Amino acid sequence: MKRRDFIQTTCKCALLCASPVLLSTLQSCEDVEADSSSTDIIPPIDTPSDTTSTGGNDSGGNTTPFYAIDLSSTDYQSLQTVGNSIATPSNTADPSGLILYRSSDTTVRAFSRYCTHAGGSVGSFVNGTARCSSHGAQFDTSGNVVGGPARSALKEYLTSLDGTLLKVFYAES
């Protein structure tokens, strides 16, 4: 075998072997647009201290499923202070978990922890910014992108706060 033929054959083999790795690496960094209408939700695992109920209703008598959280429980007590934030594990409302942020005395905002860049897990807000540990995307307390590779905002859920009972409303899959 001639040297030129050997090099060509070796390069072709190397390219064929490296192609799957290269493609998977490029795919893992692609931007994943948030789709609030998605119905492909993995069944969640609830924590024992939280409850899920159906019963939020509007003036038309329709019921909306909600995930209820008692903010007086030890896991959530920090949310009684305006400006504090926590990240929850997977639950009925969102299989990626929630980022809860106390924005005022009467409001707690809830965002999905699912990063809109590549699906990594976003942490709680620290100094007004939540960060994805996978590729460094950053989001402000309104869920909007403020840095990193993500291009779309975090999914936000409607919430209702009655005393220490927080209800996070979600669409059933």
How is this structure best described in words?
By secondary structure, the chain is α+β, with helices and mostly antiparallel strands. The protein folds into two domains: 1-29; 48-169, Rieske Iron-sulfur Protein (3-layer Sandwich), CATH 2.102.10.10. It contains one helix and eleven strands. It has a four-stranded antiparallel β-sheet, with no helix packed on it. A four-stranded antiparallel β-sheet has the order 3-4-5-9, with no helix packed on it. Strands 6-7-8 form a three-stranded antiparallel β-sheet, with no helix packed on it. A hairpin with a 5-residue loop joins strand 1 and strand 2 (63-70). Residues 25-62 have low confidence and may be disordered.
What's the SSE pattern?
HEEEEEEEEEEE
The helical percent reads: 10-25%
Strand fraction equals 25-35%
> What's the rounded overall pLDDT mean?
78
User: How big is the Rg?
Assistant: 22 Å
Work out the count of structural domains: 2
At the fourth level of CATH, the homologous superfamily of the largest domain is Rieske [2Fe-2S] iron-sulphur domain
Total strand segments: 11
Outline the biggest β-sheet.
Answer: 4 strands, antiparallel
CATH architectural arrangement of the largest domain: 3-layer Sandwich
CATH fold-level topology of the largest domain: Rieske Iron-sulfur Protein
Low-confidence stretches: 25-62
CATH class of the largest domain: Mainly Beta
Q: What kind of assembly state do the chains in view correspond to? A: single chain
Helical run tally: 1
Strand arrangement, largest sheet?
Answer: 1-2-11-10
- Secondary structure category: alpha+beta
CA-to-CA gap between the ends?
61 Å
